[in-house]
């Protein structure tokens, strides 16, 4: 979008928050870059330059605006919508792969050379993977500086910097303030004195309807791993350097996020996973605008706009749970998953609530005895098959995976039908166009609205909803009075 100067100018002059994260405005006369909705008086058009990423603006020598804090914008919706190399790379960078494994590690996961990745990221985003990761480290550092009382040396290494000197130089360059000055300017608010505990605000583009989002997560919560408590969805997280516990509460203009981490180096990755779980980088105006074009779907969109797709923090976990949920009720699926957790999950301590375990990894589940599973033999075989594929790496469902290849490999496994493939594509792979035409609840909702209800006819009708069919599914499911569609009472 940053190449469409007229459109960018209109967004900046109208302070349109819908475009925050889509592009960044750099001002030649001040040397700063802002989000489109920055509250200051817009500069003259001839003094503006537009960049596709904060990293590109930083590389061009601009520093972040202290007023609108562009690094705190919602992420670009493109990286979750698209399935190409650049989008896959951006999802992996957000998850912290470059900090943990370097650019060669990023390239290995994507199956391309480092040169190809550098070239494509530079062409589209104006910055290579190292610069993009550096911008993310700066944002993580700012969060830790402003929301904790940790010593600066600890913050430097937790944010992923190789040295305190690099940390100080980067913070000064990006924010035009030293770390100490940044902490001194921070707005008053709760700061955790306990290492590893943070309170954050996760931004999103309005509108956001929390009903089906949190309702789904709470209604399908696996005992010991997830719970709804005191108005918050809480769950355990398996992270690269340790584990964590997160509590997420919907607010009118943000999601309240309380994170407890055993290793603060996991902060950026944990935030990325929480944003992905709640689909916070979605563009509801674009989604709802297209779905309203269907006269049978329009009343549902107008009644409760801004529905998101509830996703997952762990793709392998969701694939296992999808198999457990085949042809059984929500309660039965929770029971089966809870038994696996008790038998094979790693115990954790949760002083604040009732969380007891991490969901077991695929390698841990690969050691289970199929005869110990209280389910039909065919589903036991399906479960052990998908667990073996995940544990061996034959099936990869992570944020950087190729969606088409993952779909094909998943469909080739015994006992995995179209419904499971599309559910995994929707919630684990994050495909915004995933569609479940064989789902009974979806077909019943479609028939109630006068739409065709057979799978083949429903697929033809859904062509007008592309590429947002996963969101159309949420609106159709919401016609039922199932608990997944209602925000739990406190």
Sequence-ordered SSE layout with sheet pairings:
Blueprint: H1 5-13, E1 24-27, E2 32-34, E3 48-51, H2 54-59, E4 63-64, H3 78-81, H4 85-94, H5 97-110, H6 114-125, H7 129-147, H8 152-158, H9 164-175, H10 179-185, E5 197-202, H11 210-219, E6 226-229, E7 232-238, E8 243-250, E9 255-261, H12 267-277, H13 284-291, H14 298-303, H15 315-324, H16 330-344, H17 362-365, H18 377-392, H19 403-411, H20 418-427, H21 440-448, H22 455-461, H23 469-477
Parallel strand pairs: 2-4
Antiparallel strand pairs: 1-2, 1-3, 5-9, 6-7, 7-8, 8-9
Helix pairs in contact: 4-5, 4-7, 7-9, 7-10, 8-9, 15-18, 15-20, 19-20
Main features:
490 residues, 46% helix, 9 strands, alpha+beta, four-stranded mixed β-sheet, globular, five-stranded antiparallel β-sheet, single chain
What does this structure look like?
The chain has 490 residues and is of the alpha+beta class. The protein has helices spanning 5-13, 54-59, 78-81, 85-94, 97-110, 114-125, 129-147, 152-158, 164-175, 179-185, 210-219, 267-277, 284-291, 298-303, 315-324, 330-344, 362-365, 377-392, 403-411, 418-427, 440-448, 455-461, 469-477, and strands at 24-27, 32-34, 48-51, 63-64, 197-202, 226-229, 232-238, 243-250, 255-261. It has a five-stranded antiparallel β-sheet. Helix 19 (403-411) runs antiparallel to helix 20 (418-427). The protein is globular and about 70 Å long. The mean pLDDT is 93.
């Amino acid at each position: 979008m940053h190449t469409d100067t007229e459109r960018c100018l209109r967004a900046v002059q109208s302070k349109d928050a819908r475009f925050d994260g889509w592009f960044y405005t750099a001002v030649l006369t001040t040397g700063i870059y802002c989000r489109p909705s920055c509250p200051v008086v817009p500069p003259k058009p001839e003094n503006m330059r537009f960049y596709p990423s904060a990293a590109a603006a930083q590389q061009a020598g601009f520093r972040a605006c202290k007023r609108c804090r562009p690094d705190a914008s919602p992420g670009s919706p493109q990286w979750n919508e698209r399935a190409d190399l650049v989008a896959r790379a951006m999802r992996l960078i957000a998850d912290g792969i470059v900090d943990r494994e370097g650019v060669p590690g990023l390239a290995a996961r994507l199956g391309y050379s480092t040169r190809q990745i550098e070239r494509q990221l530079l062409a589209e985003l104006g910055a290579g993977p190292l610069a993009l990761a550096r911008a993310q480290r700066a944002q993580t550092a700012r969060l830790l500086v402003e929301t904790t009382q940790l010593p600066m040396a600890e913050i430097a290494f937790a944010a992923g910097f190789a040295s305190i000197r690099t940390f100080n130089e980067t913070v000064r360059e990006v924010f035009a303030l030293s770390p100490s000055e940044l902490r001194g300017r921070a707005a008053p608010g709760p700061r955790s004195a306990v290492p590893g505990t943070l309170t954050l605000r996760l931004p999103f583009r309005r509108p956001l309807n929390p009903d089906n989002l949190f309702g789904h997560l709470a209604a399908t919560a696996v005992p010991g791993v997830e719970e709804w408590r005191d108005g918050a969805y809480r769950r355990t997280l398996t992270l690269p350097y340790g584990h964590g516990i997160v509590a997420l509460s919907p607010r009118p203009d943000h999601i309240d996020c309380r994170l407890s981490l055993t290793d603060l180096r996991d902060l950026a990755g944990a935030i990325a996973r929480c944003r992905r779980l709640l689909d916070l980088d979605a563009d509801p105006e674009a989604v709802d605008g297209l779905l309203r074009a269907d006269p049978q779907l329009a009343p549902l969109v107008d009644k409760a706009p801004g529905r998101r797709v509830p996703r997952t923090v762990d793709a392998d976990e969701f694939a296992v749970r999808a198999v457990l949920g085949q042809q059984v009720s929500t309660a039965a699926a929770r029971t089966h998953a809870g038994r696996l957790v008790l038998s094979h999950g790693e115990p954790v301590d949760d002083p604040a609530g009732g969380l007891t375990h991490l969901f077991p990894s695929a390698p841990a589940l690969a050691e289970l005895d199929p005869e110990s599973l209280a389910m039909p033999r065919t589903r036991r075989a399906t479960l052990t098959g998908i667990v073996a594929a995940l544990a061996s790496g034959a099936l990869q469902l992570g944020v950087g995976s190729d969606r088409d290849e993952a779909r094909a490999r998943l469909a080739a496994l015994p006992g995995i039908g179209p419904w499971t493939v599309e559910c995994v594509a929707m919630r684990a792979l994050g495909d915004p166009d995933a569609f479940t035409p064989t789902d009974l609840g979806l077909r019943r909702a479609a028939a109630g609205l006068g739409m065709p209800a057979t799978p083949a006819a429903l697929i033809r009708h859904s062509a007008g909803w592309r590429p947002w069919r996963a969101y159309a599914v949420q609106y159709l499911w919401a016609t039922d009075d199932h608990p997944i569609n209602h925000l739990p009472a406190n």
